[in-house]
Every structure is written in structure tokens, then in C-alpha cells.
Amino acid sequence: MIRILIADDEMLERTVLCKTLQKNLEDRCVVFQAENGREALKIYEEQKIQVAIMDIEMPGINGIEAAERIRERDKKCCIIFLTAFDEFAYARKAITVRALDYLLKPYEERELMLVVEEAIRLVKEQEGEERETEEYSADFDSEVLSADDGENVRLTGVKEKIEQYICENYIYDISMQDLARTMNYSEAYFCKLFKQYFGRNFTSYLTDYRVEAAKKLLEDPMVNVKEIGKAVGYGDSNYFAKVFRRVSGMSPTEYRARIFQGKQESGEKQNKSQEP
Length: 276
What we know:
about 280 residues, Rossmann fold, 5 strands
């Protein structure tokens, strides 16, 4: 189960958030509570917390300070900030500690759970990669072709087959495990092979591929943004928007507006150049 920490000095806030997580996640998580930053750090150390949801304004060690100390020791813990104050300084601090998200109170339950679900997905991805790396170290000798054959792991056409599979299936809910099975490789071996070919993991590659496909579709003003999300593999339009923003730095709607603004400016310049 995913180990989640809630840190908030308001007992009612903690209780409501805890019940919300338990209702939506059921047995997928175990939730710990802290009433201040100092207690949050103690629980983080003792329980090896994977997702920390912290209020910023807490007495003593506040949420930002606690997050900074966590980040010094742990690059992988997913940190989510909650605050009732919409201040730029807080948002800037959230960026420096590489927080997953920054939510303003009162937040909507759906908005919160989208962020928490993304945090859980990232935690599981990290766990999978660590496990696959360990398995790879143990299994590599049995997976590679024997040296007597004089062949290299970079088999002819493998990269092209991977690219073709993603091109044909990115609109579906595919995983690295699906592709590994399709190509008759163990997950551990394929994980290593994929990184050798593309310099990053499967999820990162697939996400960028989908966002690039979405950008092309956004050039058509007649296509609805929600439909574009579905067309590139994201059934939830809100999740699609979050992923798109994370990769491109702007929402799909903002990206579309920028495209047409650029086309308009280009057209105006062209018209001026043609004036006598």
C-alpha cells in the first residue's frame, strides 16, 4: 500500500482529508497524520512516507521548511502543498522543492484526487523501475544472446519495432509490460533495453509522444479539446490537461490560442510586406 502523510495543524482539516482519501483509495493506501512540520518529519522518517500532503501555514516548522528537509534526503517523495493563501512566494517555493502540485483551499475533492492519483502513479512507476533494475541485474546474463553468437543487444530493427508499436497503439491504454510481452522480452530486460535506445523510460517517452500528437490536433480549431485528449490516449480530460501543462508549460487551450495568435501575426506581417 502507498504510505501517505497528511500534515495540517487544523484537526478538522486533517480529519476531512483523511476520510476523503480513505473513501476514494480504500485499501490502496495507509494514511498517517501530523499536526505540525516537526511531527511530519518524524513520521516521514519512521514510516518511509511516499506521498506527503502538507499545509504550508503550520506553527514551528511550516510545510515549506518540512518539504525542504524531506527533499534533501529523498528525491522521490511526492509532495503536495495545500494553502489558504494565494501568494506567489509560496508557489515559487513549491517549485524549488519540486512539489507535484500546489492546491488552494477550499479545493474540490475531484481536483485533489486527480493530483493524489497522479502521485500514486508516479510512486508505482518508481517502484517498478527499481524492481526492474534489480531483476535486470540478476537476469541479464540469461537474457542476452550468448557471446558465441557474436550478437549485440541492439538487435537489428528492434528500435523500429518499438517506435511502430507506440505509433499504432498510443491512443490506447498501453504499458511497458504490454510492449515487453509483445516483443517477447522480460520486463526487466526490456526496461533496460528501452532506456539504451531512447535515453529515458517508457512512460516519459509515451507521454511526450502523446503530447506532440495532441499539439498537431490542436492546430485544428474545429476539434474539441476533450476529444483531443481521448484521441491521444487520455480518457479523463482534466488529467489530459494536467499532463499537457506539465510537459508544455501551458494548458491545451492556451497552446491553441498561442498557435492562432502566431498565425494571425504572421499573416499580418505577410500582408504588410505585400503592400505597395
